[in-house]
Amino acid sequence: MKKIKKFLLTIAMTMIFSVSALAASGFEFLLNVPFGINYSIPTKDIGLKGALGGGVGVDAQIGYMFQVSSGFGISALAELGYSADWYSYSAGASVTTGSSNPDAIGVQIKESFIVFNFHSFKIGVLPKFNIGFGGRHGLAIGIGGGVKIPVAGKIGLPNNEGGDVKRQDIVDLFSPSVIGYVKATFDYYLFFTDNIAMNFGLYLGGDFGPKIKEVKIGGDAFDFGLQLGFRFGA
To answer: Any alpha helices (H) in the chain, and if so which ranges?
Structure first.
């Protein structure tokens, strides 16, 4: 009986002290690389269909974690980063021949796409709820949002129209000229020390994309993917 009590006491003490990796309040810095796919939701009544696109970037999250109780804390984080996103819309089918000769045999039907590719500066906020597990493990759930400010990109239209655009071109051509976003993140932390961890995560979100002013071509998008990174605390 004494051995059982001693064993249970050892487990309890281990659990109490093992959550210290996420227990203390302090400065917090995270560096993440998100990458995933999106599905575009085009503006209504313009004859386009949604299609798959994608995105990749680098995010820096900087802020402070407040200890609420042992093994549980809330982080207030600002998010800065770079994002490369491409949004695709199906523009229907086009009929072509298999040769430059219009009378040649071999008609092909190809689906054509409209693609917006943006390189953006990202700024936002991402509060997180941090939960410490036994050992050097933890979980963080974040809910936040912000804006992506496209500084350059490329527009791909059917029949090889479109081309490269810069920030002023985007302002002149699109409304709005920024991309609003919301997202939820789910990160698993593996701590090497009390202050340094590697994180493996998932994200889900939505982008509120720009539309071409004159014809309202564009739309929003649903995003999901993975992210890898490091967490540093003080």
So the answer is: 2-18, 167-173
